[in-house]
Design a protein that fits this description.
Blueprint: E1 3-7, E2 13-16, E3 22-25, E4 40-50, E5 53-62, E6 65-71, E7 92-98, E8 108-113, E9 117-122, E10 126-131, E11 146-151, E12 164-169
């Protein structure tokens, strides 16, 4: 039996038009870590609307590494604060940033972006999540927010020892 993991709670930074329509805007592929000539094999977008402001982030798997960009309010993009934005919480990254060295390099196969959090699936059935954990959606057995990817706690759960077919995060 294979499992589909869904963590609960757009490819581009999005903006609202005066008509209220959400439209994609281009994101630089260079940045400090940049996607460059890497091959993108998975992509996910998440976020939420608060009042009249949309907070969103996106993540991609490129050549086996996790990259994220967009709103970093709960450090769902990068554990390092970016003060070049509005100075709110973790700031905003308008370019892809390679996610933490705590993820295995070249081994990420799927990525999920949710409501202020992100998750990655690596070879060997290993899952890490990071960001906001108000409802325990990071799956580490706590309600503690995580700046760095934290392993999914599977011991003693129905997920233990079963192959994961697909990882999803949602808002």
């Amino acid at each position: 039996d294979k499992l589909v993991l869904e963590f609960r709670r757009v490819l581009f930074r999005s903006q609202y038009l005066s008509s209220g329509v959400l439209v994609p805007t281009a994101v630089s592929t260079t940045g400090t870590d940049g996607l460059g000539s890497r091959t993108v094999t998975d992509i996910s977008a998440g976020g939420y609307e608060y009042g009249s402001v949309y907070y969103g982030h996106s993540c991609a798997v490129a050549s086996g590494d996790a990259f994220c960009w967009g709103s970093n309010i709960e450090f769902e993009v990068n554990p390092v604060r970016n003060d070049s934005d509005d100075g709110v919480d973790g700031g905003y990254y308008n370019y892809p940033v390679r996610m933490s060295s705590t993820l295995p390099s070249g081994q990420i196969i799927q990525i999920g972006a949710g409501y202020d959090f992100s998750c990655a699936l690596a070879t060997g059935n290993r899952v890490w999540c990071w960001g906001w954990n108000h409802w325990g959606q990071l799956g580490d057995g706590t309600f503690t927010n995580r700046r760095y990817p934290t392993p999914l706690a599977t011991a003693g759960t129905p997920v233990a020892g079963k192959p994961i077919e697909r990882l999803m995060a949602s808002t």
